[in-house]
């Protein structure tokens, strides 16, 4: 079976075809680039549907010989064999579906990108391969490999197609995530060195089967395992990101082109959550217990910190950036709860936030395109000129603040439910974040869509940025045009998904149940 | 005398090939009229190196053996490292073939055969079984290198580089020789195996330790590691690009050959004061660890400030030497494996980078990193190849650099206790190195160009670039290729005599 | 006893050479100082060959090789100096500082 | 039919979706979609109600999400209370849909308005069908959404924007309390189902302390939604919305949801004396508190808004005093007469295009239908005998007397006095006296009058479901026959009557006949007047405490973010950069320096070795 390889590498076809398209043929590039994201989408949905019908995902596992680092005589035959291994379970599957969906939508939304479209799509597709690979890998080395593909692709996408301070944002991204990755690499190296394998299942076996203790190439003490887990969590905390490692996220959110942020906020941040669950809980369940409190604490800090800072921002992208910080805190809260509800909540929150932030940034892209600015102080009363857009924006805000019936609620609710079992007092403090979420999202969105349309000159005087000159102000070209057919499609799909998940979360919860149960068994609870 | 004539001289076939080629080229260079282009000579030299490589490869299945009273050893270690050295040499000679400095290239013939002599030195070093051969081959390499550095006779920078190289090289030679003299004094023999055996009975720990430190410092000159790294940036910058590539790759490999042959063979089982009385080498591990850490930090940090590409790569090569030294400092069973793998990969990605820099220097006469701006627009494939080499140097997965680095990491943490601090330093300096590697990528892909578009890559350079790029990609995505080869060396089980 | 004396002499010579190599401005003197260091090593070798714990002829041989190599190195050094002098009109090593930072 | 009760909310939902998709094309015709949908809902709800009158509770559940071994469900539960509320909500909603056709005619976003109304109605109907806390919470927030959207309907008005935001945030504060309480209960009982929770209370799995904590937290949700002190401030501001919305959401249905929630969880509340006392106290305080503010308001809708707060306080008081039936009874009558009052007020506003009662007057003759209907509403709310309000208020007073603290009883009586006073102050100011330049004021269309008429009838008739004289049908049905009328002293009814007439008389003196100066009170105690006019400075207190505290913390964190977090990152980068510069400068180009560094390195190693003797670490 090559199913997973096909799934992960199918955008490669698009990359190859794009190479032969003339740089100037933008329509063709847009079309081809979007079409290239469709095969993984179809395959992912197919797998999703089939697994819903009872297909066993293990049957998709793939393994191929890749490299054997050494065959020293005192080692067993299996030691230091790194294979090309892909394999998914319910947990990976939901993330893969999320990735595939958002990639297609981001490709659609990329019609607003006008410069050097060819290179843009090449890297966007590379990014998709990386993301799909991260969630499909069944082996630490390949996980890391795909992770770094996303790192490079994002660096280029942000640095080349971003806003004014794009290079700085790209470096921020690179360095923070590079440090996270480097730490992760050390952990991977330790695990690989001492167990002789990088396969998740084998690692799990080696770490937890007392009989396998003897097969370890070098001992892994309890103390050592705690350090390893600490390293893992720290590495993924940078990717998530947890306060105080969040500064890169703000820059990337603000500077990157909106379709890229759709993928970044939608999927890449979730790698942090995925990693913590897959490796943190999956490989070190016993040790994870001792970190649960810290995680929950950081989760609450994230929630409140992000929300309180989002309150002060007057630039829509920054509001959304800090809200991402806040929402990722909810993921940490779920993980810190360390019970079924919490873990499931963390995953649901990841997916939900993926959809919601994608929607938000899709709209931000349209807004920036139409009005030339996303500064809240310079906007107002948009409902009059752009009723449809405003409706979508309001929906995004409501989803962001966790309105029941929309996806955001499901994640937040389940995560908090989890924490209320284990640490009710902490959870109650964190719940304040829900109030702040309502304040910042409504404040931002209502200031844009409600009220009087802003007089531009007044806005400039009122603006706190002295460098804002009338010339830099976005002058709507002619009349302001509402969301149009092609742009509305991704927005509509996202809203539909958000509503679907919000109304019937079992859609996502069903594939997760088995995984969560396995993890809870590992946790011995 | 009988021994000499009854020896199995075929074991030295690669050396003979290189030597014969060098002498032939020397004679031809003298004989040919000055109007004739010396470019074919460089191609011939490259072919000779490639031929020697094939000869070496053909000998892989052979049993380990030694001739000439165990002064010349042909063990797995020798074969393996000779292959790397020859690969680096052949590729560097391709760069020589296309060497075209602004003032003209009247000494290309010399360039080719001097590089062959240096290569011969490096090869001999890999096969040395005796202090004396080790010393002589080291000097053959060094003295030839001094000349290579100064080959641009009319360029002040090249002259200065040669002078600095000679002075520092001389001091290093003296220090190392001083250490050798103590080792000889304690054992009364120059055979490496013999020294190791006799040292087990000696009880002069202080003198021995002093000898060790002297040798270590002396070797660090060739490795360009702290504290003897400072010459490298100046010499790399001043030397002609093919020579720089040669120093960065072949000399460095030779340095690690020297490190392993000399320090490991002699001191692995020598008694010591200190933590590990059974092995002086192990008790000196902390020193090497600290030096490795400092080398990584200094190399990657100072590189941040460089604008000259050659100088930047000099610091980058110092950092890489630090990674290699870290792999050595771990002293795990993966040590030689990981060093060989890293050096192989390092050869490919570095020569690839230098080939492109050589082209830029040929075309623009400058090696400022501005020369890279907007390369993507005019020469997308060239830019992509350089991007690949840079990513590999940065250790990004999907390239060979990652696999090599991973192997070093594994070596660092597999021992008990693991070298976690060193691993952390390596991880952090790797991230710091992202800044300057990605800065070059930014120049390549993001910035608009101000300079005239570069011309097409000449045949020699494109051969080198294609070979290196394919190698970097192949080892990155299918590392099995390289590791299967490594497996055939039997993990250098016959390394210690 | 005798060995120690030779060793001490060699060490002193070595240090003198080193000091000179690191402090003298004139490159010719620097090169000569390096020769001095190498010669100090030769004293060591010869002394060990005669009075060492394991006297052997290898030390003499080594010293001969070292002398030859030192000569080669000095020759190349002087050649480099001459080339340097041609372009810079100076033999002062401290003026060879255009490559830095 | 009860098993099909889940269909009831779907009609308005369908209307919402249809109007969202096609509303712009249908324009004014959108109203028919909304009216038809709610009519169907109403009919269906009545069928369900009738079914339930003769039957027993029906419950059905479907999986919503599984969490490990626990399955969270959604479903419907047709208890007596739910069936009653279902019909009530559907009825008022339908009437408001009809009324709005006239009131909103010509508005640019006419279809949007109906869409939002549909959404709200769907949510409210869903809320009253919920069999568990989770579902209740979901719809609880959705009704909030409907309210928010409709308050902000006039989006271009800054006041409407602020009011909508405030409404959402203030109720959200309460909602978080609700959420926390609900989750705490969940981990005690492993279920959100009302039945399971009640069972847990019954068999003692739920500790009393936890019960108290949880229900008080849930009660915070009710406080927020029902505009109780201290989270009431959003409700008067919510009057920025169109008047039919005020009638439907902010008088008859949504704000009563708090009362409904406490009623639905009544067994849980009953288990905790502290909780009951809290409910009663908050209710009683709110009743008098809001009534006093109502005395001095000059905006017709705000008077009604404070009146609503006050009446909701009554209901809470009733619940706290243990009289579940009285609360629901008053909820019902209040829904009718308050909706009537709001619709009538809307008719007045429609006619005179102002909301300031001081600019009105003498409208009695100009609005021949509206004025008498308003009078009926005012009499009913004032508790004049034979009107619906009289019976329900009497029931509450009786409950407060028998079960509650005396103080709360007297507060309730005082509030009744104030209620009749400010209602008739309003009545006299608007309808009596000289007409003030409203020459063109005329009665509204039939589509507006008809719903008012229906409500007028109900404002009288609904009282007779539960009277001391004709039996207590409602009580018996709601409690499955376990209801017994409070044996309250007869003088309470008399007292209530006296109080209500006294209020009306006083209002007549001041505003009708103008025998007393209007500034009689404000001239004597100006600071009291000022206090009331500024709503006891509650908004200002919030602004100075909570809001400024949050904004202060937020600013502090902004500095932390910019200087500490970013600063540390920059410091690290700066150190690396400085090291790079230093290292670069150290590379001074002198070959001899390089050698010296080497020798120094060697010397350091040798010295350390000599000192430590090989024991490096």
Automatic annotation (TrEMBL), chain A:
The NADH:quinone oxidoreductase/Mrp antiporter transmembrane domain, residue ranges: 137-429
UniProt-listed GO biological process terms: ATP synthesis coupled electron transport; electron transport coupled proton transport
Compartments where found: Cell membrane; Membrane
Keyword Hydrolase: no
Keyword Acyltransferase annotated: no
InterPro entries: NADH_Q_OxRdtase_chainM/4, NADH_UbQ_OxRdtase, ND/Mrp_TM
GO molecular function: NADH dehydrogenase (ubiquinone) activity; NADH dehydrogenase activity; ubiquinone binding
One cellular component (GO) term of this entry: plasma membrane
Membrane topology: Multi-pass membrane protein
The entry's keywords: Membrane, Transmembrane, Transmembrane helix
Family the UniProt entry places it in: Belongs to the complex I subunit 4 family.
PANTHER family: NADH-UBIQUINONE OXIDOREDUCTASE CHAIN 4
Protein name stated in the entry: NADH-quinone oxidoreductase subunit M
Automatic annotation (TrEMBL), chain B:
Domain of life: Bacteria
Enzyme kind, highest EC tier: translocase
GO terms of molecular function: NADH dehydrogenase (quinone) (non-electrogenic) activity; NADH dehydrogenase (ubiquinone) activity; quinone binding
Membrane topology according to the record: Multi-pass membrane protein
Any single Gene Ontology cellular-component annotation: plasma membrane
Keyword Cell membrane on entry: yes
Reaction equation(s) it catalyzes: a quinone + NADH + 5 H(+)(in) = a quinol + NAD(+) + 4 H(+)(out)
Enzyme Commission no: 7.1.1.-
GO biological process terms, semicolon-separated: ATP synthesis coupled electron transport
TM spans (from-to): 12-32, 41-60, 80-99, 111-128, 134-151, 163-185, 205-224, 245-270, 282-305, 312-333, 339-361, 381-414, 420-446, 458-478
Boundaries of every NADH:quinone oxidoreductase/Mrp antiporter transmembrane domain copy: 128-432
A matching Pfam family: Proton_antipo_M
This protein's UniProt keywords: Cell membrane, Membrane, NAD, Quinone, Translocase, Transmembrane, Transmembrane helix, Transport
Self-association and partners: NDH-1 is composed of 14 different subunits. Subunits NuoA, H, J, K, L, M, N constitute the membrane sector of the complex.
Stated role: NDH-1 shuttles electrons from NADH, via FMN and iron-sulfur (Fe-S) centers, to quinones in the respiratory chain. The immediate electron acceptor for the enzyme in this species is believed to be a menaquinone. Couples the redox reaction to proton translocation (for every two electrons transferred, four hydrogen ions are translocated across the cytoplasmic membrane), and thus conserves the redox energy in a proton gradient.
Family note: Belongs to the complex I subunit 2 family.
Name of protein: NADH-quinone oxidoreductase subunit N
Highest classification ranks of the organism: Bacteria, Bacillati, Bacillota, Bacilli, Bacillales
Gene: nuoN
UniProtKB/TrEMBL annotation, chain C:
Localization terms from the record: Cell membrane; Membrane
Record-linked NCBIfam families: PRK05715.1-2, PRK05715.1-3, PRK05715.1-4, PRK05715.1-5
Oligomeric and partner information: NDH-1 is composed of 14 different subunits. Subunits NuoA, H, J, K, L, M, N constitute the membrane sector of the complex.
Gene Ontology BP term (one): ATP synthesis coupled electron transport
Primary subcellular site in the record, as a coarse category: membrane
InterPro entries xref list: NADH_UbQ_OxRdtase_chain4L/K, NUOK/Mnh_C1-like
Highest taxon listed in the record's lineage: Bacteria
Keywords of this entry: Cell membrane, Membrane, NAD, Quinone, Translocase, Transmembrane, Transmembrane helix, Transport
Protein name per the record: NADH-quinone oxidoreductase subunit K
GO MF assignments: NADH dehydrogenase (quinone) (non-electrogenic) activity; quinone binding
EC number: 7.1.1.-
Catalytic activity: a quinone + NADH + 5 H(+)(in) = a quinol + NAD(+) + 4 H(+)(out)
HAMAP family tied to this protein: NDH1_NuoK
Function text: NDH-1 shuttles electrons from NADH, via FMN and iron-sulfur (Fe-S) centers, to quinones in the respiratory chain. The immediate electron acceptor for the enzyme in this species is believed to be a menaquinone. Couples the redox reaction to proton translocation (for every two electrons transferred, four hydrogen ions are translocated across the cytoplasmic membrane), and thus conserves the redox energy in a proton gradient.
Gene3D superfamilies listed in its UniProt record: 1.10.287.3510
Listed Pfam families: Oxidored_q2
GO cellular component, one term: plasma membrane
Family to which this protein belongs: Belongs to the complex I subunit 4L family.
Source organism per UniProt: Geobacillus thermocatenulatus
Membrane topology field: Multi-pass membrane protein
TrEMBL record, chain D:
Domain NADH-Ubiquinone oxidoreductase (complex I) chain 5 N-terminal: 64-114
Gene Ontology CC annotations of this record: plasma membrane
GO molecular function, a single term: NADH dehydrogenase (ubiquinone) activity
Membrane topology: Multi-pass membrane protein
Compartments in which it is found: Cell membrane; Membrane
Pfam family name, one: Proton_antipo_N
Coiled-coil blocks: none
Alphabetized UniProt keyword annotations: Membrane, Transmembrane, Transmembrane helix
Gene Ontology BP, a term: electron transport coupled proton transport
UniProt family annotation: Belongs to the CPA3 antiporters (TC 2.A.63) subunit A family.
Protein name stated in the entry: NADH-quinone oxidoreductase subunit L
Lineage per the UniProt record: Bacteria, Bacillati, Bacillota, Bacilli, Bacillales
């Amino acid at each position: 079976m090559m199913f997973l390889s096909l799934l992960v590498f199918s955008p490669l076809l698009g990359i190859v075809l794009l190479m032969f398209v003339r740089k100037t043929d933008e329509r063709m590039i847009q079309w081809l680039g979007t079409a290239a994201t469709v095969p993984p989408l179809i395959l992912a949905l197919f797998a999703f549907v089939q697994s819903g019908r009872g297909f066993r995902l293990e049957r998709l596992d793939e393994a191929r010989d890749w490299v054997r680092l050494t065959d020293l005589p005192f080692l067993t035959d299996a030691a230091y064999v790194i294979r090309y291994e892909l394999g998914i379970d319910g947990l990976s599957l939901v993330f893969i579906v999320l990735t595939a969906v958002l990639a297609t939508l981001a490709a659609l939304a990329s019609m607003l990108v006008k410069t050097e479209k060819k290179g843009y799509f090449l890297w966007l597709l590379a990014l998709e391969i990386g993301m799909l690979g991260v969630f499909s890998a069944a082996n630490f080395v390949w996980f890391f490999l795909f992770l770094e593909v996303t790192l490079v692709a994002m660096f280029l996408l942000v640095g080349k197609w971003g806003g004014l301070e794009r290079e700085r944002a790209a470096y921020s991204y690179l360095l923070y995530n590079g440090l996270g990755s480097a730490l992760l690499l050390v952990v991977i190296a330790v695990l690989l060195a001492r167990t002789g394998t990088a396969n998740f299942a084998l690692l799990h076996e080696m770490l937890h089967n007392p009989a396998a203790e003897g097969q370890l190439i070098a001992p892994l003490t309890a103390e050592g395992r705690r350090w390893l887990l600490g390293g893992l969590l720290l590495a993924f905390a940078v990717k998530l990101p947890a306060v105080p490692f969040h500064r890169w996220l703000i820059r990337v959110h603000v500077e990157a082109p909106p379709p890229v942020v759709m993928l970044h906020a939608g999927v890449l941040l979730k790698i942090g959550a995925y990693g913590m669950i897959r490796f943190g809980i999956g490989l070190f369940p016993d040790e994870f217990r001792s970190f649960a409190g810290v995680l929950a604490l950081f989760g609450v800090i994230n929630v409140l910190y992000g929300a309180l800072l989002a309150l002060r921002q007057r630039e829509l992208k920054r509001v959304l950036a800090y809200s991402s910080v806040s929402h990722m805190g909810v993921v940490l809260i779920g993980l810190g709860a360390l019970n079924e509800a919490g873990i499931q909540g963390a995953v649901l929150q990841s997916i939900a936030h993926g959809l919601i932030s994608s929607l938000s940034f899709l709209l931000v892209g349209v807004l920036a395109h139409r009005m030339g600015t996303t500064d809240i102080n310079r906007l107002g009363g948009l409902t009059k000129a752009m009723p449809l857009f405003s409706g979508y924006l309001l929906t995004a805000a409501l989803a962001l603040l966790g309105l029941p019936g929309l996806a955001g609620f499901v994640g937040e609710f389940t995560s908090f439910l989890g924490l209320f079992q284990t640490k009710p007092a902490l959870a109650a403090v964190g719940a304040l974040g829900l109030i702040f979420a309502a304040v910042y999202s409504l404040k931002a969105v209502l200031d844009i869509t409600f009220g009087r349309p802003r007089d531009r000159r007044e806005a400039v005087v009122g603006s706190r940025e002295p460098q804002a000159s009338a010339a830099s102000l976005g002058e709507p070209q002619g009349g302001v045009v509402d969301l149009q057919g092609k742009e509305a499609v991704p927005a509509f799909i996202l809203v539909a998904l958000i509503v679907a998940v919000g109304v019937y979360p079992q859609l996502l919860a069903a594939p997760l149940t088995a995984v969560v149960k396995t993890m809870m068994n590992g946790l011995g609870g | 005398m009988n021994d000499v004539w009854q020896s199995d001289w075929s074991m030295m076939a690669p050396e003979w090939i290189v030597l014969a080629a060098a002498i032939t080229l020397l004679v031809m260079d003298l004989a040919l009229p000055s109007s004739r282009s010396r470019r074919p000579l460089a191609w011939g030299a490259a072919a000779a190196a490639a031929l020697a490589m094939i000869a070496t490869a053909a000998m892989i299945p052979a049993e380990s053996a030694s001739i000439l009273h165990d002064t010349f050893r042909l063990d797995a270690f020798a074969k393996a490292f000779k292959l790397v050295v020859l690969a680096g040499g052949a590729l560097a000679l391709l760069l020589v073939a296309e060497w075209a400095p602004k003032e003209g290239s009247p000494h290309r013939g010399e360039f080719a055969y001097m590089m062959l002599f240096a290569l011969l030195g490096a090869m001999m070093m890999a096969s040395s079984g005796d202090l004396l051969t080790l010393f002589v081959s080291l000097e053959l390499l060094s003295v030839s290198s001094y000349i290579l550095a100064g080959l641009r006779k009319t360029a002040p920078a090249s002259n200065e580089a040669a002078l600095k190289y000679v002075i520092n090289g001389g001091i290093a030679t003296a220090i190392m020789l001083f250490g050798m003299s103590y080792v000889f004094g304690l054992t009364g023999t120059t055979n490496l195996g013999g020294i190791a055996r006799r040292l087990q009975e000696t009880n002069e720990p202080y003198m021995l330790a002093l000898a060790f430190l002297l040798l270590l410092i002396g070797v660090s000159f060739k490795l360009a590691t702290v504290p003897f790294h400072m010459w490298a940036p100046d010499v790399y910058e001043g030397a002609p690009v093919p020579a720089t590539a040669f120093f960065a790759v072949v000399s460095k490999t030779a340095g690690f050959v020297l490190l392993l042959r000399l320090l490991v063979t002699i001191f692995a089982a020598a008694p010591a004061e200190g933590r590990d009385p059974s092995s002086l080498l192990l008790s000196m591990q902390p020193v090497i660890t600290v030096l490795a850490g400092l080398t990584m930090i200094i190399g990657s940090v100072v590189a941040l400030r460089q604008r000259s590409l050659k100088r930047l790569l000099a610091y980058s090569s110092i950092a890489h030497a630090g990674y290699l030294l870290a792999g050595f400092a771990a002293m795990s069973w993966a040590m030689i494996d990981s060093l060989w793998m890293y050096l192989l990969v390092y050869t490919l990605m570095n020569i690839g980078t230098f080939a492109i820099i050589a082209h830029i220097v040929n075309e623009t006469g400058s090696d400022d990193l501005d020369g890279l701006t907007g390369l993507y627009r005019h020469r997308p494939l060239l830019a992509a190849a350089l991007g690949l080499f840079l990513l590999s140097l940065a250790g990004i997965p999907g390239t060979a650099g990652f696999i090599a680095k991973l192997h070093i990491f594994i070596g660092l943490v597999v021992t008990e206790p693991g070298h976690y601090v060193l691993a952390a330093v390596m991880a952090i300096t790797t991230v710091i190195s992202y800044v300057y590697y990605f800065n070059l990528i930014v120049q390549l892909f993001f910035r608009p160009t101000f300079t005239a578009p570069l011309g097409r890559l000449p045949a020699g350079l494109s051969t080198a670039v294609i070979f290196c790029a394919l190698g970097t990609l192949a080892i990155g995505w299918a590392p099995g290729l390289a590791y299967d080869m490594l497996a055939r060396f039997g993990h250098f089980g016959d390394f210690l005599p | 006893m005798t060995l120690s004396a030779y060793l001490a002499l060699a060490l002193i010579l070595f240090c003198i050479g080193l000091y000179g190599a690191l402090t003298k401005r004139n490159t010719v003197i620097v090169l000569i100082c390096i020769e001095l260091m190498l010669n100090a090593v030769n004293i060591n070798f010869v002394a060990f060959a005669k009075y060492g714990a394991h006297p052997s002829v290898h030390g003499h041989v080594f010293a001969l090789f070292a002398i030859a190599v030192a000569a080669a190195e000095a020759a190349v050094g002087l050649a480099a100096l001459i080339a340097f002098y041609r372009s810079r009109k100076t033999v002062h090593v401290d003026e060879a500082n255009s490559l830095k930072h | 039919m009860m098993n099909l009760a889940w269909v009831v909310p779907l009609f308005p939902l369908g209307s919402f979706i249809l109007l969202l998709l096609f509303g712009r094309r249908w324009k004014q015709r959108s109203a028919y979609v909304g009216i038809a949908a709610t009519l169907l809902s109403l009919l269906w709800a009545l069928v369900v109600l009738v079914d339930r009158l003769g039957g027993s509770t029906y419950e059905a559940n479907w999986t919503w999400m599984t969490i490990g071994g626990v399955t969270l469900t959604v479903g419907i539960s047709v208890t007596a209370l739910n069936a009653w509320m279902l019909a009530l909500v559907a009825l008022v909603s339908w009437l408001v849909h009809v009324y709005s056709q006239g009131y909103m005619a010509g508005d640019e976003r006419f279809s949007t308005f109906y869409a939002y109304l549909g959404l709200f109605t769907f949510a409210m109907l869903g809320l009253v069908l919920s069999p568990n806390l989770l579902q209740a919470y979901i719809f609880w927030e959705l009704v909030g959404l409907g309210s928010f959207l409709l308050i902000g309907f006039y989006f271009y008005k800054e006041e409407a924007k602020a009011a909508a935001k405030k409404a959402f945030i203030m109720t959200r504060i309460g909602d978080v309390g609700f959420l926390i309480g609900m989750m705490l209960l969940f981990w005690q009982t492993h279920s959100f189902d009302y039945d399971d929770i009640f069972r847990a209370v019954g068999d003692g799995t739920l500790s009393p302390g936890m019960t108290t904590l949880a229900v008080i937290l849930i009660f915070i949700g009710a406080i927020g939604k029902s505009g109780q002190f201290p989270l009431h401030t959003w409700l008067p501001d919510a009057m920025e919305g169109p008047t039919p919305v005020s009638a439907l959401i902010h008088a008859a249905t949504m704000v009563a949801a708090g009362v409904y929630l406490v009623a639905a969880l009544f067994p849980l509340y009953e288990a905790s004396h502290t909780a009951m006392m809290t409910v009663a106290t908050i209710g009683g305080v709110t009743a008098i508190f809001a009534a006093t503010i109502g005395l001095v308001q000059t905006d017709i809708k705000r008077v009604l808004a404070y009146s609503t707060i006050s009446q909701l306080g009554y209901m809470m008081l009733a619940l706290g005093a243990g009289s579940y039936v009285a609360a629901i009874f008053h909820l019902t009558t209040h829904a009718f007469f308050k909706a009537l009052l709001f619709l009538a007020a809307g008719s007045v506003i429609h006619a005179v295009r102002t909301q300031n009662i001081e600019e009105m007057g003498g409208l009695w003759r100009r609005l021949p239908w509206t004025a008498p209907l308003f009078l009926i509403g005012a009499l009913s709310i004032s508790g004049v005998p034979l009107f619906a309000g009289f019976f329900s208020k009497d029931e509450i007073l009786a409950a407060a007397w028998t079960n509650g603290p005396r103080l709360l009883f007297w507060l309730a009586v005082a509030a009744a006095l104030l209620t009749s006073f400010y209602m008739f102050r309003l009545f006299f100011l608007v309808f009596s006296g000289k007409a003030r330049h409203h020459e063109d004021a005329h009665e509204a269309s039939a589509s507006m009058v008809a719903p008012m008429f229906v409500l007028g009838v109900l404002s009288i008739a609904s009282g007779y479901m539960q009277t001391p004289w004709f039996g207590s049908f409602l009580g018996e049905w709601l409690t499955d026959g376990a209801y017994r009328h409070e044996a309250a002293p007869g003088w309470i009814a008399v007292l209530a009557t006296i109080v209500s007439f006294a209020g009306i008389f006083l209002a007549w003196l001041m505003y009708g006949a103008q025998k007393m100066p209007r500034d009689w009170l404000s001239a004597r105690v100006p600071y009291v007047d000022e206090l009331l006019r500024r709503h006891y400075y509650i908004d200002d207190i919030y602004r100075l405490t909570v809001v400024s505290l949050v904004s202060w913390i937020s600013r502090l964190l902004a500095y932390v973010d910019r200087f500490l977090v970013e600063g540390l990152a920059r410091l690290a980068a700066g150190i690396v950069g400085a090291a790079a510069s230093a290292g670069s400068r150290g590379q001074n180009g002198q070959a001899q320096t390089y050698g010296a560094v080497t020798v120094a390195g060697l010397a350091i190693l040798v010295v350390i070795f000599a000192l430590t003797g090989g024991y490096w670490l």
